[in-house]
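Protocol step 4 of 5: obtain the predicted structure for the target chain.
Materials: sequence only (see below). No template structures provided, no constraints applied. The aim of this step is simply to have a reference model before the mutagenesis design in step 5. Sequence pasted as it appears in the construct record:
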Amino acid sequence: MSTTKVKASQLWGKSKEDLKKQLIDLKTELGQLRTQKVAGGANSKLTKIHDLRKSIARVLTVINATQRAQLRILYKNKKYIPLDLRPKQTRAIRRRLTKHENSLITEKQKKRQTHFPQRKFAVKAEA
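Step 4 output (structure tokens):
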């Protein structure tokens, strides 16, 4: 068994199948260490269990990050994007009118602007 810490930099280059295989190996090793701990193994097993749990988390993080990146590529330039891929921002910003909606003018406003335009006054400059 490996029992060495997994480095995230090594994981980024691996394929999804390799990552899943490594994840299964790490989980089986963790199960074996836990049974040894219950059976009355040495206290050094505790640090190995800690390292294994963190390594499993790193592998899962890389798997999820690559999956999200592929989904972002898939949904690029689509009209609707899944909620978890949209930018979080604040609730107020998300509910705000879009730039297009904000620039729209009602018929009444259009008529008022054409019939009653802003008056231009000639101001005499004092010397």
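Step 4 remarks: The CA atoms of residues 2 and 121 lie 84 Å apart. Helices lie at 8-11, 16-39, 44-74, 91-95, 99-103, 107-115.
Proceed to step 5.
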